[in-house]
Specification:
The protein is an alpha/beta fold. The chain contains 24 helices and 17 strands. Strands 11-12-13-14-15-16-17 form a 7-stranded parallel beta sheet. Strands 2-4-7-6-5 form a 5-stranded mixed beta sheet, sandwiched between helices. Helix 20 packs parallel to helix 21. Bound molecules: 2'-deoxyguanosine-5'-triphosphate, calcium ion (CA) (2 copies) and zinc ion.
Length: 578
Amino acid sequence: MGNKELAAAFERIADLLDIQGEQSFRVNAYRRASRALKDLPQDAADLLASGALAEVPGIGKGTLEKVEQFVKTGKIALLEDLRAAIPGGLPELLDIPGMGPKKVALVWKELGVDGIDALRRVIDSGELAKLKGLGEKSVAQIKAGLEFAERSAGRTALGVALPIATALVEQVRRIRGVCRADLAGSLRRGTETIGDVDILCESASGPKVVEAFVSLSATKRVLASGETKGSVLVEKPDGGELQVDLRVVPAESYGAAYMYFTGSKEHNVRLRELAIRRKWKLNEWGLFDAAGKRLAGADEIDVYKRLGLPFIPPELREDRGEVSATDGLPKLIERDDIRGDLHMHTTASDGTVSAEQMAEAAGRLGYEYIAITDHSRSSTIANGLSIDRMWRQIDRLRELNKKLRHVTVLVGCECDILADGTLDYPDSILAACDLVVASLHSSLRQDRVAITRRLLAAIDNPYVTIVGHPTGRLINKREPADLDMEAVVAAAARTGTALEINAAWQRLDLHDRHVRMARDAGVMLAIDTDSHAPPQLEQMELGVRTARRGWVRAEDVLNTRPLPAVRKWIARKRAKAR
Ligand code: DGT
Ligand code: CA
Ligand code: CA
Ligand code: ZN
């Protein structure tokens, strides 16, 4: 019985109460408790037994009682009652963009909609459009939202798939007769979502290896099991399923197969064209000349070399100019180039640990600096800081810095960009910070003109250093704001404002194409984890992957620079405005 299960139970209580029409402060208390439970450093049952759980911020008396019930009986009475009263398919309707709890309750009570299929039916039949209490605009939004949800169905976020796949490939490496194994497919290319996991391995005994693979303990169902191929479903932490394909190839084909199964399909087509032009043949077995003689195949780099190409990093293999790049490929940023993290939260707003603990965690990652950027006053759900509290936070962080040895804490805030484009704090506070992340958190569905203008206004403020998660999208959950990204990129370039690659697995915002667009325009990028707890700092990896997919070099990223250079870069925009 893990903390994750507990957290999921509390999240579900919040969803069901929300649909039932419970007041939002109560619903939010359950969501806060859920987050706190998920981020606990130890097993909740142990912390409960020692009494330490009561001290954790976000865990009140009601939560404690329910955790106790769960530990003792495996159930929470409130959740059982709610489940009995409300159809199980309703919570997933909440994940559809445009469907808030009120609308979910409305379609359930008025039309008997009890899940996604039923929602699709009432849309198709026109019943939804006729429903009193739902405007034309809402109906259109729900339609678009459902289509978005259907498009995302079956794809798993990179941050969810990567740990599962990494663990599996380790297990494949330990299967008897396996010489080596690697992740291929979209996962190796670092795409933001994954259709299925592709594992390649080298072995002379295919059938035995496939047999061992499909029998691994993670397997929930075997889809296929053959001589050189196996395919299984494994369970995801959220309860869904993920397909994992294994292919077994001999040593002489490993490189060609690695290339083929890494893809993308479009990249492979380009490579095959190069081969055909020379009257050669390229497939997953190797590169062969017209007489059928093997030119390369064991080693991926050699295949590229024989085709007259440099090694192309997997993140670039999308047929976005990487095969024809005549002036060479950029030297891409690497995880080790990162010297700090410029966006994170503490218990001052909705994080789970203190600034000092965040700094210690950053020190363990070898960082030189971090910025503490708690939420501003309008983010009430996230316990944003009032003006008074923010002044005190600034003082506290300055004091903390005197104490810290290895990591410098930049005093920052994550300032809401309000619906009218003004910022949530006066310039006096922003000027007192070393760094300001400005983010859209509300009114994300404004029309293109309004929301673009709003972001441009924030970018024009001399104290805004970084635009946080610029589009506001949540992978598979929420569509991006309808921004004119070209205008945003141009304004960022002109003013010397950095655009964020938010590395949180739910966001990856900017996404790869926008990253490329920004980089090509000479915009400075910042790769930040937006961490709310120390383990999340490690999501930096996902942000770096996304940056690489946007052809980004180390010099394009603010937080690859030493601290004095970061300060200087921030000062330049501030000086220009004076
Ligand atoms: P996914 O799983 O949808 O996230 O995307 P991929 O790229 O992992 O696609 P997947 O799993 O269907 O296939 C893995 C790789 O195998 C793919 O990137 C390229 C190669 N591949 C699969 N089918 C074809 C094909 O019909 N033609 C070519 N050229 N390559 C293919
Ligand atoms: Ca795949
Ligand atoms: Ca596949
Ligand atoms: Zn944040």
